[in-house]
Design brief:
The complex is a heterodimer of chains A (325) and B (322). Helices cover 74% and strands 2% of the residues of chain A. Chain A is an all-alpha fold and 325 residues long. Chain A has one domain (2-315): Orthogonal Bundle (ABC transporter involved in vitamin B12 uptake, BtuC), CATH 1.10.3470. The model of chain A is unreliable at 1-8 (pLDDT under 50). Chain B has a domain at 63-244. Helices cover 73% and strands 0% of the residues of chain B. Classes of the chains: A mainly alpha (325), B mainly alpha (322). At the A-B interface, helix 7, helix 13 and helix 15 of A face helix 6, helix 7, helix 10, helix 12 and helix 14 of B.
């Protein structure tokens, strides 16, 4: 580490690989994925195929945007799939009793969970990964308690049409996803709040010294992540029309892989929601393409694990960090 | 006079131990609480046996990662070593015969080396690296085994009863625990790992080959997990498992933190993990026997994890937590 300070010239191979991977890599990756699946399966880019791809990526994009903000500050949110599941289950279980009021109820619940996550990290100094892991376990218990292990079906047509209503040939979930993505990109790149998040992720101590309330921004980011996961859960329930405690069980690694595949580094301060779109396209289209070809869960897990490891090696900015734990 | 002196000394030793291991108070309190609520069920031989059985599972999973936690990192790949190793035992049984079980420690050490090298050279946060690797291993073992658990016969001697009430797996665990404690008490590894955990830059400036010892910590973790998984392989059913459960990953972490190894590293170690494991087991069995709904138990485990991390992180100043 001392040697690195003296050496001004970066290590050519890995740094070069990093700049290529973060800027051009995702585009090449997307083209490769589309070409390969189109060659194997000619129906991949047919109208029905594209509708399938849109259904697979839209809610995922919203959840991934939330996770991107957390990773931008250098933390990690493991609880995104659990929060998504909780919000989906709240919607399906209580829609009979209180009607469409379940949507704000679910979103507020998710916001509170995000707040607790942020509070544990910022005030109680619990490493975010473990705090969110513990919260995930608690949420899993709550999900079991709510459903009693049964499969619940959504009967409300209005709620179903939230994501499945077709506008201009595409399901409305696409417009939800793209809308949230555009807002997130705007917030991250243009607003002062976004700049402060980049500052917190780039240099925690420096951000604190330049009069940014670091603890408060960390909590905000986790609340944003919780809120967006909740929104993703509402849309998920709307398009799937039912579910059990198994919702989102295998989502944690694909979500993380999609964020790093887009080019957001784990160390924070590099990347952003604008890049996550390409990452989500890569991951969910591989997922949907494999599902169309009837390739099993095992190969999918293997692929996403390897993509996650490979892309985190490729995107991380090694010059800036000294000690990584 | 002499008698009084010895009394004083014993008293001071006890207070010192309690200060070092506050979890002992929790353990005693739990035993007293559960013992007074339902004495006949809690102090029954069957419950004693189940506590020992669960203690074995938890300890064997948690011993290895404690070495890594000591340096301030996390190793979540232990479940993956157990799964992939089990599949390899099934795969290599026709070729290697009974020696096929050697594959589990081999997988463990290879995993440790891989994680250590990637973590130190490519500088990826360890938890996410090991988590991704864990998922990769799950997919790989499901792929090799064809998607369902494969039973392997021939290793039943590991769990065959020798002494009534005490599981044989527990007896086999004792040498592993002794080896871990020996490493921590009588070799330099303990000092070096503690130094890296409490101040990595300082350790490097003091001339410790930090990268080497970090890789060594991951390899020790892999080795201990591998040897433990040889016992667990039979202890948990004699087949290679396929499904990844959140509980299997989290419980050993709870045992480590509860034992008094803070996740920021720098103090604690495998010897404390034993205390954490026994406390957690008593906590879990006590709740399991109680009138609580079974769904509530994992929920309380999650709360226990967070609370114990908060308590272990008290008084941390100048440490940035991400």
């Amino acid at each position: 580490m001392i040697q690195e300070k003296v050496m001004t010239r970066p290590k050519l191979s890995l740094e070069w690989l990093r700049s290529i991977m973060t800027n051009v890599g995702p585009f090449i990756f997307v083209i490769a994925v589309v070409t390969i699946f189109q060659l194997i399966n000619p129906f991949f880019l047919s109208y029905q195929g594209i509708i399938t791809l849109i259904y697979a990526m839209s809610y995922f994009l919203i959840a991934a945007c939330g996770l991107t903000f957390v990773i931008l500050t250098g933390s990690f949110d493991f609880s995104v799939p659990s929060v998504l599941r909780l919000s989906a289950l709240i919607c399906v279980l209580y829609i009979e009793k209180i009607g469409l009021l379940v949507i704000p109820l679910a979103l507020v619940a998710c916001l509170v969970i995000g707040f607790v996550n942020g509070l544990l990290l910022a005030k109680f100094k619990v490493p975010s990964f473990l705090a969110t892991l513990g919260i995930s376990i608690v949420l899993e218990g709550i999900a079991w308690y709510l459903t009693k292990g049964h499969l619940a079906l959504m009967q409300n047509e209005t709620f179903r049409s939230l994501a499945t209503f077709f506008i201009a040939g595409f399901p409305s979930t696409l417009y939800w996803g793209m809308g949230v993505w555009i807002i997130c990109t705007f917030v991250a790149l243009v607003t002062p709040f976004g700049r402060r998040i980049y500052a917190v992720g780039g240099n925690l101590e420096g951000a604190g010294l330049s009069d940014i309330n670091v603890a408060r921004h960390r909590i905000y980011v986790f609340m944003l992540s919780g809120f967006l996961s909740g929104l993703a859960g509402v849309l998920y329930m709307s398009q799937m029309g039912g579910g059990s405690v198994r919702i989102g069980a295998e989502m944690a690694i694909p979500l993380f892989a999609s964020v790093v595949a887009g080019g957001t580094a784990l160390t924070g301060g590099v990347g952003g929601p604008h890049r996550t779109l390409l990452g989500v396209i890569i991951i969910t289209w591989i997922q949907a393409g494999m599902a169309m070809l009837a390739i099993g869960q095992d190969i999918q897990m293997l692929t996403f694990g390897l993509i996650a490891i490979g892309m985190s090696i490729a995107t991380i900015e090694r010059k800036r960090i000294k000690i990584v734990k | 006079m002499n008698n009084q002196n010895t009394n004083k000394r014993i008293f001071s030793v006890i207070t010192q131990t309690l200060k070092m291991h506050p979890v002992i108070i929790v353990l005693l309190a739990l035993i007293v609480i559960f013992g007074s609520i339902y004495p006949d069920r809690f102090f029954s031989p069957i419950n004693f046996k189940s506590i020992l059985r669960q203690f074995v599972t938890l300890t064997l999973f948690a011993l290895g990662p404690s070495f890594v936690v000591l340096t301030g990192r996390l190793d979540l790949s232990f479940v993956g070593v157990w799964m992939l190793g089990g599949v390899f035992v099934w795969l290599f049984k026709p070729i290697l015969g009974m020696f096929a079980i050697i594959m589990i420690p081999v997988v463990g050490v290879a995993t440790g080396l891989f994680i250590g090298v990637i973590q130190t050279k490519a500088k990826i946060p360890s938890f996410i690296l090991t988590l991704s690797l864990l998922v990769t291993y799950t997919g790989l073992s499901a792929l090799i085994a064809g998607g369902y658990p494969r039973a392997v016969e021939g290793y039943e001697f590991i769990t065959s009863p020798l002494i009534p009430l005490i599981p044989t797996a527990f007896l086999l665990t004792i040498p592993i625990i002794a080896a871990a404690i020996f490493l921590m008490k009588y070799t330099r590894i303990c000092v070096y790992l503690n130094a890296i955990g409490s101040n990595e830059e300082g350790a490097q400036l003091a001339g410790i080959n930090v990268d080497k010892y970090k890789i060594l910590a991951f390899m020790l973790s892999g080795l201990f997990t591998g040897i433990g998984a040889m016992i667990l392989f039979q202890h948990l059913g004699g087949s290679a498992q396929m499904e990844l459960k959140l509980n299997t990953i989290v419980w050993p972490l709870v045992a480590i933190v509860l034992g008094g190894t803070p996740l920021t590293g720098g103090s604690g170690g495998p010897q404390r993990t034993l205390l954490g494991a026994i406390t957690f087991t008593v906590f879990y069995r006590g709740l399991y026997l109680s009138a609580l709904h079974p769904i509530m138990v994992p929920l309380l485990v999650g709360v226990l994890l967070i609370v114990s991390i908060i308590i272990s992180a008290r008084g941390l100043k100048g440490v940035t937590v991400t």
